[in-house]
UniProtKB/TrEMBL annotation:
Residues 480-507, 511-539, 544-568 form the GLUG domain. This is GLUG domain-containing protein. InterPro entries: GLUG. It comes from the Archaea.
Length: 751
């Protein structure tokens, strides 16, 4: 019986259903407009944004300003089964493969009524009840009603009141109307526009011999050469979009652009424009330098609450351009925006400095191949949301979810490069990235600066309260990779990372870190990493591999931070930092997990070198290596210093092995280790009695010498088995780092 029922249902679903009807807009001036005022609200809200998918002619009469109507048959889950643009008001829809009782007919008037000077828009829908049904929509100008006649039953229309006619701007309800901005008379680049319906832009796939939609606005610049080294036609028109577009939460779906030119997106270039509430779906965007689903090149202005969900954004090769008085190849490709120039150094008004806020991208982003004409400095700058941001631009409260594939440098899950030259406040705040970041196996030359959130944070860039959750993998690059990080690939020149986290796995060749690949490059002030941590596994195939940072050097600082993931490398391998070098500083930080390498392997730092310092820090990591192996530091070189720190994890090695330090040529003061936990009775640079058994390093009964050496008033806390949140005594922990994370690392966190 069950099989028979299924067969009957299958046969029923395979039938074709014809739905016919009319759409009429009729005048009825005698009824007033009380119904409008009594029932405010948007049609799209009532219909859960299912209608408003196109435009067509509708029967209209004086007193209306209706641009058209469209009728669609929808499955119960919202899938579009058939669409027809009405011709003289009549329509006919064919659907199959779905039970007629699951078919919903939606009619939307694209445009609005005018009634007593009040602008209105309207839509209606009805569930079909048998195999052939006439569905007739009659919109009455005065009452704004729709009679949907199905088996003699009337269903009222859902409608809404448009905003004030003097401030609402020009309404856009079709992709043709979008394309008319700039290209049609009376629709200027500095106009005010508002979407009034979801827009089906899939027809753009066949526009312009397959080149698709023509991006709105341009910013004149040199053409240079294309990816094959051939001359590229320059963009000579300097006519960016300077107006306002309010998407009002409506979708534009199926937008297609495939152009061998710069500045590609719905908007090619904007200047002090304001774009809000635009939702792009299922995009297919391909261009050269400055490519994004929404905007190719943004100068100043605001993008608020916009998104690109589904589809691809592809940079089909960088173009040689003159930028910042240098000739270089730049891709600048982002899931939402290719390039964001804040405008600070150009003197824009403070209110117009570029701000991207509350935005989202979930598209696949690919940076194109390195050009055939070899550049001196080929940089890609590809990001899941933005390719490059600089000159005071700010990105806030935004997220990227798509994967990013890179061929050259500066590749990030959220932003390819954050460039804050001249300390102009370029910042990324309260943002997240979830997609994986990967280097292509077809990349040419040594590649670098890959990060789960940002590829390169350069010249005083600021990153605060951000997180990256995807994996970062540059191990397939055939000619090697460097500066690979779970959050940021390269972080330098006074840049700041605060209160941020990376949870994904990271792999590469050199300078590979769970949070940052390289933290460096300041003549007086290097990059700062504060109150941040990483939890993923870090794998490096060569050297300078760290659970938090691969290389920390040139006046860079790590403070109040930690790493708990496993670390695997060859040389200069550390649970927190692979190499701490050239006046680098580590303070109040710890490492857990496991560390496995060959030479210069340490639970906290692999090599501490050239004036670098480590203070008030500890490691409980398992450490294994061949030579220069220490529970805290593998090798402490001349001119470097380690103070007020301890090690308490297993240590295993063959040559130059120590409980805290494997080899020491620098300064060591008040460094302790647990001889029982480490399995080591000696440590380079420290007296033998600094090796304590576990009982004298845990709980309330700490060794008197350790208590005297460590600052338990302002830096350290004891962990006693009598504490409510632990299961037994623990090692001293740091006051500035979350207590729960430290107890969990020691496996003593209670319920």
């Amino acid at each position: 019986m069950a099989s028979q029922a299924r067969a009957e249902q299958t046969a029923e679903n395979s039938k074709s259903t014809t739905i016919e009807g009319t759409v009429v807009v009729a005048a009825n001036p005698g009824n007033g407009n009380a119904a409008v005022r009594d029932n405010p609200g948007r049609a799209a809200d009532v219909l859960e944004k299912r209608p408003a998918r196109g435009n067509a002619a509708a029967t209209s009469v004086p007193g209306t300003s209706v641009d058209g109507a469209v009728v669609r048959a929808l499955a119960d889950d919202g899938t579009v089964l058939d669409t027809e643009e009405t011709d003289g008001g009549a329509f006919s829809l064919e659907v199959c493969g779905v039970s007629p009782t699951d078919v919903r007919v939606v009619c939307v008037l694209n445009g609005e009524f005018e009634l007593d000077g009040q602008r209105l828009y309207a839509a209606a829908e009805r569930l079909v009840s048998d195999s052939r049904t006439d569905v007739n929509f009659t919109f009455t100008d005065a009452e704004i009603e729709a009679t949907v006649d199905v088996d003699g039953e009337d269903v009222a229309v859902a409608y809404g009141i448009a905003e004030d006619a003097q401030t609402d701007g020009d309404h856009v309800g079709t992709v043709e109307q979008l394309q008319a901005i700039e290209t049609a008379a009376g629709i200027p680049l500095d106009g005010t526009y508002r979407l009034v319906a979801d827009i089906d832009a899939s027809v753009t796939r066949v526009w312009n011999d397959g080149s698709g939609f023509e991006p709105i606005g341009t910013d004149g610049e040199l053409g240079g050469v294309d990816k094959d080294g051939a001359p590229n036609e320059p963009i000579v028109d300097d006519e960016p979009f300077t107006g306002t577009l309010d998407g009002d939460g409506y979708e534009i779906y199926g937008l297609c652009i495939d152009r061998e030119r710069n500045q590609v997106g719905l908007f090619g270039a904007t200047n002090t424009a304001h774009v809000s509430g635009v939702e792009l779906r299922d995009v297919d965007i391909t261009g050269l330098t400055d490519t994004g689903a929404l905007i190719g090149k943004m100068f100043a202005g605001t993008v608020d609450g916009c998104s690109a969900i589904g589809g691809d954004v592809i940079n089909d090769g960088a173009v040689l351009l003159e930028r910042r008085d240098e000739i270089e190849f730049d891709a600048f490709v982002g899931g939402l925006i290719g390039e964001v120039d804040g405008g600070v150094e150009d003197g824009v008004d403070e209110s117009d400095v570029a701000l991207v806020i509350g935005c989202e991208a979930d598209v696949f982003v690919e940076e194109g191949e390195e050009p055939a004409a070899e550049p001196n400095d080929a940089v890609g700058q590809a990001g899941g949301l933005i390719g490059q941001m600089r000159n005071g631009a700010r990105l806030e409260d935004s997220v990227a979810r798509g994967d990013v594939l890179g061929f050259t440098n500066d590749i990030g899950g959220l932003v390819g490069e954050v460039d804050a030259s001249f300390d102009n406040g370029t910042a990324v705040v309260d943002c997240e990235a979830f997609g994986d970041v990967r280097a292509s196996a077809d990349s040419v030359g040594l590649i670098g600066e890959y990060g789960g959130l940002v590829g390169e944070n350069d010249d005083n860039g600021i990153i605060k309260r951000c997180a990256a959750h995807g994996d970062v993998d540059a191990s397939d690059a055939p000619n090697g990779s460097e500066e690979i990080g779970g959050l940021v690939g390269q972080h330098n020149a006074g840049g700041v990372i605060e209160d941020s986290v990376a949870t994904g796995d990271v792999s590469g060749d050199e300078e590979v870190g769970g949070l940052v690949g390289e933290n460096d490059d300041g003549d007086e002030v290097g990059g700062l990493i504060a109150r941040s941590h990483a939890t993923g596994t870090v794998t490096g195939h060569v050297k300078q591999i760290g659970g938090l940072v691969g290389t920390n050097d040139e006046n860079a600082t790590v403070e109040d931070s930690f790493a708990t993931g496993d670390v695997i490398g060859v040389e200069e391998v550390g649970g927190l930092v692979g190499e701490n070098d050239d006046d680098g500083e580590i303070v109040r930080s710890f490492a857990a997990g496991s560390v496995d390498g060959k030479e210069q392997v340490g639970g906290l730092v692999g090599e501490n070198n050239d004036g670098a310092t480590i203070d008030q820090s500890y490691s409980i990591a398992d450490v294994c290596g061949d030579a220069e192996v220490g529970g805290l530091v593998g090798e402490n070189e001349s001119g470097s210093e380690i103070t007020e720190s301890y090690a308490a994890g297993p240590v295993d090695g063959a040559v130059d092995v120590g409980g805290a330090i494997g080899v020491n040529d620098g300064a060591v003061d008040e460094v302790y280790w647990d001889v029982t936990a480490t399995g080591q009775t000696q440590s380079a640079g420290s007296p033998g009695d600094n090796g304590l058994d576990t009982e004298r390093m845990q709980g309330d009964d700490l060794d008197e010498a350790l208590v005297a050496a460590f600052d338990f008033d302002g830096t350290w806390d004891r962990v006693s088995g009598t504490d409510a949140d632990v299961t037994r005594d623990g090692y001293p922990i740091l006051q500035e780092i979350e207590r729960e994370a430290q107890l969990e690392s020691q496996a003593i966190l209670g319920q």
